[in-house]
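Input.
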Amino acid sequence: METGVLETEISGVVVIQPQVFEDSRGYFFESFSQRRFEQMIGKTVFVQDNESKSSYGVVRGLHYQLPPYAQAKLVRVIRGRIWDVAVDLRRGSATFGKYVAVELTEDNKWQFFIPRGFAHGFSVLSEEAVVQYKCDSYYVPQAEGGISFDDPELAIDWKIPREDMVLSPKDLNRPGLCDAYVFDV
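Output.
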């Protein structure tokens, strides 16, 4: 399969399906090429790579960075399965307050591109997951923002039972969408 880009219901948020070459030895694929990315998505220069390891039921998010430190992200799974979620926080957007989600796995090797102006989070569906993501701006602790994972206005289905969810104390006490920062983009 040739590398492809799947549009989502929210403008700017896309799923990248890489071309994977498999044979009896295993597989090979180009996980990132700046030139190819710009041809498919547009100009974005990534400056930081992050990796997290989490167990089943962990919910990370919903997170964003305040301007001028807002971040676009390119997310992929190295091991396991996650339900990856992007929430539109762009003022005036036709999809403001809506979310789009995709299952990223070590098998499908898909990548989820989330532009600036979105909150991001994921839940771990497998026993364990290793997630890697690129950011186009450096993380700044003082610019950290977030939205409650269980905000009824968003009504996100995290694909795991509530009693199995594991969250950080910070993520358990995030404000709702009505109190979130809104991006001017």
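The longest helix spans residues 34-40.
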